[in-house]
Amino acid sequence: MKVAIFMLALLASLSIAAERVVLFEDFTNSGCGPCWNYETQVNNFINNNLPSGRLCAIRPHVNWPASNDPIYVANPTEQTVRKAQYGVSSVPYYKIDGILNASASNFQALYNQRLAVPAIIAIDVARNGDAVSGTLSFRIIAEEDPQWTVPMMLWPIIVEDNIPGVGYWSGSTFEQAFRDNVLGYYGEELVFEGPYPDTIFTSADYTIASTWDVNELHLATFVQCAYQAQQHEVENCNWAKFLDIETGIGDAGWENSNNLVLSVGPNPSTGSFSVTAAVPGNMNGTVEVFNIAGRLVSSGSINEMQSITVDESGIYLVRLSTADGMSVTESVAVIR
Prior knowledge:
The chain is α+β, with helices and mostly antiparallel strands. Helices cover about 15% and strands about 40% of the residues. The protein has six helices and 21 strands. It is elongated, with a radius of gyration of 22 Å.
């Protein structure tokens, strides 16, 4: 429970503003000559845009023309799910944000087009563990009612760079190669209930295979419809170098290091507790209370949130934040 509280506290401290991050998917195969012919253009597009933090790149491999493609063979089921999501029947096959069919001649134009589309879903990721195993925690915020008409899922996919190539890639490397969907074959469904903004927290254990180079791993976490549902638009994506994902223990990001003052008591509580909060100078502070599932229970100004009552037993997170991004979080146990 202590680790869970730390991870939720870190995620609660991260920025909630939704900024569009575009997902680029490249379906390929080591025996595909046309795929190799466009590899330079694909790499140039990705390398030119990844540093901005506004692009996610995933390259699932299929089992034709070469059935022994090593990336496909390493994880055939989850890559087949991605292939079936769009009904991919030939390669190369490029998709931008799940809805735009792309080609080497229009990668940048379609990417720019999607960047201009407002996003109402924000995704943050935290990691607790080491280079071999641990837990990934995800915070997904809907800034307003997304009005989804099909089940929508969270898809966190690990990819690896600089893998020695075979086939047409002999002497070169596979980049952003699909390795693992951390939440299994079909991801995990997200159900927002409101009021908005509404927040969902979820988590998944990870294990880094001994054959992977953890220093070459990235995590692309995106929200898209359930397997083969008919609404493929990606709501948003989060791109992170795996070892650089913020950690929940020993990381200053969630500690009282911003000259903010926050205390909660009594702890444990029987249902009602007091909040003492202060911010520097003439700044305004907002206090938010989340339950252990990550849902917002109550929020208001410092003056409005001095006394709080909750109806159910559990662990609650109390977050104090300011408009310029400073925040601090405390936990309180409620036993009714």
